[in-house]
Amino acid sequence: MSSVLVVDDDSDLRELLIHKLTASGYVVESAADGQFGLEAVAAKRIDAIILDWMMPRKSGMDVLCALRDEPRHDRTAILMMTARARGWEQEQAIALGADDYIVKPFSPRAVADRIELAMAARLRESARPADKRLRPRRPVTIYP
């Protein structure tokens, strides 16, 4: 069974995602902010992470960068889920290593499918020889 970590400061949204993803067969953990999210990932193996962008203590982008800087998280699918819908924000998240970008409001039913697709893509990528893997493009200009 695949494990998913939902990292969002909105408790109602976390509960909704926990319910929907558990019903879809995932083992689901949750964290209320980016710092707790990093601690949860350090404590156990997580297959996919849903990250809000704007959170207290550590933003989703900070968490994304921290995880993509560690090779042990190469197989972890990371999906940004945020109200930030501008094109450059999506491009920035993908350039830093996000596997998908879901704009709020969203269809809870579609989230499980997008997680599955992102995990499959990560698995294919990790099977490539190390010198042929796609890497996040850096540096990226952070816009206000």
Plain-language structure description:
The protein is of the alpha/beta class and 144 residues long. The chain has a single domain (3-132), classed as 3-Layer(aba) Sandwich (Rossmann fold), CATH 3.40.50.2300. It has helices at residues 11-23, 34-43, 60-68, 87-95, 108-127; strands at 3-7, 27-31, 48-51, 77-82, 100-103. Strands 2-1-3-4-5 form a five-stranded parallel β-sheet, with helices on both faces. Helix 1 (11-23) crosses helix 5 and helix 2 packs parallel to helix 3.
In short:
This protein has helices at residues 11-23, 34-43, 60-68, 87-95, 108-127, and strands spanning 3-7, 27-31, 48-51, 77-82, 100-103. With 144 residues, the chain is an alpha/beta fold.
Number of helices: 5
Which range best describes the helical content: under 10%, 10-25%, 25-40%, 40-55%, 55-70% or over 70%? 40-55%
In terms of structural class, how would the helical and strand content be classed?
alpha/beta
For the record, the count of structural domains works out to 1
Shape designation: globular
The main sheet orders its strands as: 2-1-3-4-5
Characterize the main sheet: 5 strands, parallel
Q: Give the N-to-C terminal Cα separation.
A: 39 Å
CATH topology: Rossmann fold
Q: Hey, roughly how much beta strand do the residues contain?
A: 15-25%
Rounded mean pLDDT is 85
- Class, according to the CATH hierarchy? Alpha Beta
CATH architecture: 3-Layer(aba) Sandwich
Return residue spans where pLDDT drops below 50 for at least 5 consecutive residues.
137-144
**What is the element string, with H for helices and E for strands?**
EHEHEHEHEH
Indicate the radius of gyration in whole angstroms.
14 Å
Total count of strands: 5
* Fourth-level CATH superfamily: Response regulator
